[in-house]
Amino acid sequence: MEKDTRLILALDVLDSAEALRISQVVAGHVDAIKVGYPLILATGLGIITELSRYAPIIADFKVADIPNTNRLICEQVFKAGADAVIVQGFTGHDSLRTSVEVARSNNKDIFVVTEMSHPGALDFMQAAGEAIAKMAADEQASGVVAPATRPERVRDIRNIIGSDLTIISPGVGTQGGSAADAIRAGADWVIVGRSIYQSDDPAAVAAKLVSEIKEVI
Amino acid sequence: MEKDTRLILALDVLDSAEALRISQVVAGHVDAIKVGYPLILATGLGIITELSRYAPIIADFKVADIPNTNRLICEQVFKAGADAVIVQGFTGHDSLRTSVEVARSNNKDIFVVTEMSHPGALDFMQAAGEAIAKMAADEQASGVVAPATRPERVRDIRNIIGSDLTIISPGVGTQGGSAADAIRAGADWVIVGRSIYQSDDPAAVAAKLVSEIKEVI
């Protein structure tokens, strides 16, 4: 995943034709496209292969299982052509380690969720966020996911993981986070969904975000 | 899901033909068949529809996302013909609540992972297990998943959730748990995988487990 525009599209649509159409028009403005299980369940794993013609694909599956199941999931997703898989950290070091091993043997990336920004994340995840970030560094994941809606947390997480790991940061746009603030706080990439794919002109919105980012780097 | 044999098959294979063959021969001995993402990614969501001809299907997806993504996943899985979805509790009350709402409106079930038995589960999940079990009861999930490898924990979880929720309990057989011990400790169903589907005679192994269970109920 080359660091150029620093923008990642969260392609949270359910229709294959729509996914391909949007990806084609924004491809020049994003460094990667993030897809989730809803799209994969609706269309099949092959959509990753198709979308990977436009940009590197991040499979945001929040994998949260025992080591062997994490392995079986990651193997298939990389084989389909994804460049990275997002896994949950709360299932512990061995589940993460196995995922990282699979990624490394395929020359691909694992990103670890440290904390999330929905209200329920305060119930159990928030308290574990920093320990999970540390674990991600210890297990040599490629990076972590940290919310752009809380730039101060992006800064905290950056201090914990150091400079070897990257931070990808969702929550920009409709959810209220600012791309510039997240990048200034230490995010390597910001992840934007609805404000791009629900726009009448997805490429223009993406281009505008890229110029906002360029101003602060 | 009718409580009859109290046995659930964990169908952790990757091949569609093998999945169908095993399901057909053990169908008379199990109350449900549990499938995971590795099989779905390899074959497509339609395998759930096909397998549901043999037994109620539990989609063990350990769903661990924000409420809206949990909703989109559960909707598709129930529509494909699954009777239940297993979700992680770690992502908090709103993610769980949304999943339960989708299940209820489809007259289906949600089971919540309280704790897991791989070593990494001690890192973050173990400490939250009882609070997650309580949350599952508060949010009126259908039941929880608790490890048969630790019958004393099944008993603790039963005391927390009371009698309204059911317990499904993996870890019997190859992983070392005893079906009879788990049922005696308060599990409603035990989940068995490899000892059945890797056997030369899956139906005979399943039948033997069912008689072991019948002896203690």
UniProtKB/TrEMBL annotation, chains A, B:
Pathway: Pyrimidine metabolism; UMP biosynthesis via de novo pathway; UMP from orotate: step 2/2. The keyword Lyase applies. It comes from the Archaea. It catalyses: orotidine 5'-phosphate + H(+) = UMP + CO2. The active site is at D60, K62, D65. CDD domains: OMP_decarboxylase_like (cd04725). GO terms for cellular component: cytosol. Its EC number is 4.1.1.23. Substrate binds at residues 12, 34, 60-69, 117, 170-180, 193-194. Keywords: Decarboxylase, Lyase, Pyrimidine biosynthesis. Residues 6-209 form the Orotidine 5'-phosphate decarboxylase domain. GO terms for molecular function: orotidine-5'-phosphate decarboxylase activity. GO terms for biological process: 'de novo' pyrimidine nucleobase biosynthetic process; 'de novo' UMP biosynthetic process. NCBIfam families: PRK13813.1, pyrF. Belongs to the OMP decarboxylase family. Type 1 subfamily. Homodimer. Catalyzes the decarboxylation of orotidine 5'-monophosphate (OMP) to uridine 5'-monophosphate (UMP). This is Orotidine 5'-phosphate decarboxylase. It comes from Methanolobus chelungpuianus.
